[in-house]
Write the structure tokens for this entry.
Amino acid sequence: MRGESQIWFKSYGVWKRVYDLLRKKQHELHWTRMTWLKIFGTVR
């Protein structure tokens, strides 16, 4: 039982890291999109 919970905790840590990474990436994507919109808005 203890080994199982340890494995679950490890996988949870991995998933959390992946989730955080994805969230950061999404945030960066959002900012690049906003920047692109601003650039294209001024061009038009």
The radius of gyration is 19 Å.
